[in-house]
Fold this sequence. Notes:
Elements: H1 3-12, H2 14-31, H3 39-67, E1 71-73, E2 78-80, H4 82-101, H5 111-128, H6 134-152, H7 159-190, H8 195-202, H9 209-226, H10 234-241, H11 244-251, H12 253-269, H13 286-305, H14 311-332, H15 335-366, H16 377-380, H17 382-396, H18 402-415, H19 425-450, H20 465-483, H21 486-500
Helix pairs in contact: 2-3, 2-5, 3-4, 3-5, 4-5, 4-11, 4-15, 4-21, 5-6, 5-12, 6-7, 7-8, 7-9, 7-10, 8-12, 9-12, 9-13, 10-11, 10-14, 11-15, 12-15, 13-14, 13-19, 14-15, 14-18, 14-19, 15-17, 15-18, 15-20, 15-21, 17-19, 17-20, 18-20
Amino acid sequence: xxxxxxxxxxxxxxxxxxxxxxxxxxxxxxxxxxxxxxxxxxxxxxxxxxxxxxxxxxxxxxxxxxxxxxxxxxxxxxxxxxxxxxxxxxxxxxxxxxxxxxxxxxxxxxxxxxxxxxxxxxxxxxxxxxxxxxxxxxxxxxxxxxxxxxxxxxxxxxxxxxxxxxxxxxxxxxxxxxxxxxxxxxxxxxxxxxxxxxxxxxxxxxxxxxxxxxxxxxxxxxxxxxxxxxxxxxxxxxxxxxxxxxxxxxxxxxxxxxxxxxxxxxxxxxxxxxxxxxxxxxxxxxxxxxxxxxxxxxxxxxxxxxxxxxxxxxxxxxxxxxxxxxxxxxxxxxxxxxxxxxxxxxxxxxxxxxxxxxxxxxxxxxxxxxxxxxxxxxxxxxxxxxxxxxxxxxxxxxxxxxxxxxxxxxxxxxxxxxxxxxxxxxxxxxxxxxxxxxxxxxxxxxxxxxxxxxxxxxxxxxxxxxxxxxxxxxxxxxxxxxxxxxxxxxxxxxxxxxxxx
Length: 501
């Protein structure tokens, strides 16, 4: 590799490098300068360093976009284009929001390590969304996964946290094995690890038994990462056992990166072997397989959420159901549906971080996250309750919130285009029906918050000004993106048009 190649690599990886350096600085200062300070001061200092590092990384991304629209290193090993820039900035924003909502937390004294893990996971996700090479996809996924395993078990005082981390690790290791097995077959069939070259080598050979095994293994591996049925078993325990800010990060930022790369692999790597998932025009390929996974996720996620008494587990099964909605866009695999997927996953990630932020407030005050712990919350904490109203109604798809437009655009994109696309009507009808089911369990939470009376001995919940500002900011963005969805959608469509052109 020449000096020019090294320079090009360093420039493309500069934002990720800045994020990692910020994490290391936060750890070093926490273990030295702030070692004897209170947890609040240590969290505030670490959050300030993380925010500064994320801002610097965002500036690097914007500057690279100004100087060159599209850059590629080693045939897709690393990419720099408007779409990757948009997703990377979104990931940085989600990481910052997670850290800001963690400042009032008391689940750990290892604050420097906690912030470093979040920033390392963010760097892994930034690499993940900026590559078209199987090797870097796998390495980035494992960097992300290892950080998430540790974050899940970060509450050393909770047995449930340790149990959740162990389950997550075991299922994650299994998914990595499936994914690596599928990738090895793809390399054997194509002689390349580049997604575009794999697509060219395998086009039209969907009935090849080895390719079918590769498709099944790849969908299985990514199914674990996005918590889709029947690969979802780790998700409810991980969400319930993990500290609320860590669960928010797992449910938001990792979903954005995982769904983005899942769509990339299926749409680019298996471009000529999609088949058709229509009710009357079925054709072999990966689309029917993903459609079945989507349908199972929609049904099981929404139905199982009805029986939950823990709000964290309810949000976990809700996440499984939302994975089904997002898989619908991958099944359709048009430019319009990919734009709908990105809008949906970004707004869903913001909403989920906000919902877990409110759960963290209640959990800190009451010591639990049961539905009964939310009784009369509107009288004890009016502002977080109002934010929770916005978040849950958005997840349910109620206008004029971002969740409504996300679902509407997703469903319309799945049905738009050719006559063959209309054959996905069966999956869209199922998704609409399950959306109605989801409204019931979201309203169960809101009933506890606004209708039921608080316990007689319940005191007003104390919440910091910073947490209130962050929650209100997220709620305001959800309302704004619902009333003016083109603010985000135009950015996504322009980015897609730039890379296609």
